[in-house]
Amino acid sequence: MLNLVLFGPPGAGKGTQSQHLIEKYGLIHLSTGDLLRNEILQGTELGLEAKKLMDAGMLVPDEVVIGMISNKLDANRDAEGFIFDGFPRTVAQAEALDSLLKSKDSAITVMIALEVNDDELEHRLLLRGKGSGRPDDANPEVIRRRIKEYNDKTAPVAGFYKAQNKFTSISGIGSIHDIFDSISAVIADKA
Length: 191
Ligand code: ADP
What we know:
Blueprint (H helix, E strand, L loop, with lengths): L1 E6 L6 H12 L2 E4 H11 L2 H11 L6 H14 L5 E5 L5 H12 L7 E6 L2 H15 L2 H4 L1 H15 L1 H7 L4 E5 L4 H15 L1
Parallel strand pairs: 1-3, 1-4, 2-3, 4-5
Bound molecules: adenosine-5'-diphosphate.
The site of adenosine-5'-diphosphate (ADP) has 18 residues, from α2 and α3.
């Protein structure tokens, strides 16, 4: 199995690159952000609770996202592999993902981090907010809160994969095509 963690701050381009990875490698895309937004659309209790935190730029509780990922892994037993996008976002989530995969005799192949500086991120997110209708993209204060949550809680997840020799990082600035080529080269090397 090819199991990729696509890593990087909000606005780094994880969703865009995921679309290309799905096409090339036939992987199942698991984006916790998309799964949560879907819960909100369906008006579930989970969605209502998550929305308050998401609109404030804060992370939702670990057990909520771990439960969603666990369900998706169970529902896709025959998959060639997965792209984890926006997950794991805390060290506790990374530990939980390792044990979920282990129970299926699988493991993360590699983490690929997209590096983009804070000014460029803020610019991209505000631009995306104009078209996406996402409330968390429209407000500069919420964007800065998300970047702070990332630096405080999510950035340490890189260390978790470094300790397993699974961490790689590439520049997330440049053309979508060039960045995709860099990601493909990492996969060719690691898979
Ligand atoms: P971004 O573009 O900011 O990376 P996502 O679409 O991945 O956004 O996530 C949007 C919001 O959903 C986050 O700000 C957070 O509130 C919540 N969220 C998504 N994934 C997770 C996760 N793994 N753990 C906790 N909260 C999450």
